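Section handout 9: paired folding examples.
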Amino acid sequence: MLYSSLIFIYGFFPPSLLIYRIFSEKLRKTVLFALSMIFCLLCSPEMLVFLIFFTFVNYVVGLFTGAFRRKKLLSTLCLFIGVAFDLVMFFTFRTEKFIFLKERLRIPDEIFPIYFSFITLSALGYLIDIYKKRIRAEGNFINFGLYIMMFSKFFIVIRYSSFRKMLDGLSCDNSQMGKGLKIFVRGLVRKVIFADSLYMLYIAVKSINVLEMSVANAWLGMTAYVLCLYFTLSGLTEMSTGISCCFGMEFPPCFNYPVFSTKIRTFVSKWHIQVLQWFRRCLLKPLCDLSKNRLCHRLAYILTWCAIGTWYRTDVNGLIFGGLLGFFLMEEKFLCRLRLLKATGIIYTCMAILMFAVLISGDDISCSFRYILAMLGGNGVFADSMTLYLLRCYGVILMAGVFFSSMIFRNIAVRCGKTVADIISPVLTVVFLAVCTALISGSGHSAVLILNF
């Protein structure tokens, strides 16, 4: 069950919020945990059973890791068991090689792999923080269960210490609920209006034979893909943030308008902020601490980006994507020293990101390279009648997508002032909710795009 489904928006979310507000503050954690279990149950009974099992294993491993904090060998062994278990589960639900196990467990294959990608990072980060003595092991199963299973946190990666502070300060006033609903609808607009429309453009281009594809069509398709991916992921995370805000928890933003960045490094720093911070904290820093050698640090940086690429797409394409992106990020420092990115930075970044995105979107590595060849004019056709048709049908939504994903839109919104925003935002929230409701049943399904992740 996605946040953008009518069942969730009108059938699950409002009753859950009402039930949550009825109970006293002492019982709200328990109520929120019960609501999360009901959410998982509605997705699939098998999903609920598996998530309880997964949560319990990490809870017990965390307790043992914390109990043996002064015994390095035993603590390391516990961490190894926990990490091995989480990674085995991750690859089980993210690769086709273990499809027989997924079929036996009868876990829904529509959206659960996406949820589980974020859940795995949360569980691993929790165990690593206990091992590094940054936090103490959680003794309350409900508190830890909410960290893993809370239905409004499935697309959010946050440190357990920060989550625990929010959990201890749960509140539910009208202003916070109003703010949360506004954020939720904003994310819904990104998903339903922009992502689903751009997905239709991407599918239209993908239906063209790559060996006959024109240069313009190839670039149009990949632009639609990147924007669709951005609006899908940012929309889902904003909806998750908005729902959590309604329940009294304010999560930090995950995206910061990356389009029109002047460097790849800047683009990356504004994309999936919490996820990339997790990899830096839990993988890059420990690898760099193993040696002070500069070459080892560069190798650790490449390996970290290979892991990030594999997290996004668990196959050869993802591995190559991560490795190449990590290499380019290191070498970009050289271009910055030569001051080559001041005038051409935006063009260079956009072209590079679109090229890298081909590796994520392609069915396999050979298909990706054929698509890149088409983008570079390998088919000998710059544009055709299909190009004009696509621009006529999707030109407006494409330009709107570029505008609303850039810092230009954010700057304009800031300059409008808080007073103006407070006046018109409630009206816009209601209008956009009505528009999205009308579009959901007949819109495209951009979530399909991230099922490869």
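Moving on to protein 2 of 2.
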Amino acid sequence: MKKIVITSNAPKAVGPYSQATEINGMLFVSGQIGLKPSDNVMIEGGIREQTEQSLDNMRAILNESGYTFGDVVQCTCLLADISKFKDFNKVYSEYFVNETPARMTYEVSALPVGALVEIGCIAVK
């Protein structure tokens, strides 16, 4: 049975989509950007701060559903500037320490509300 995941510990969706959808032991987390959950305003700073906030938002959604970063099997990462890849990886590696998931990382021409990074994932129990 499909379940829509909603938590106030992550920012509200900025469009017609859910924070995550769970079905058959799999959680599909929508792309998270650096919005603060408290006010849906972009965190101040650059790629490092936005990557941290995006992953904190992802953690909140995972936790709401009973998952952890250890359950994540795949991430899709979008960067507004691929030259920031090294800085992005430094922060990302602090969240995915032991068993890193499969990953795709792309440079895109723009992200919602001027974000520098967007990260989505699939987690499996």
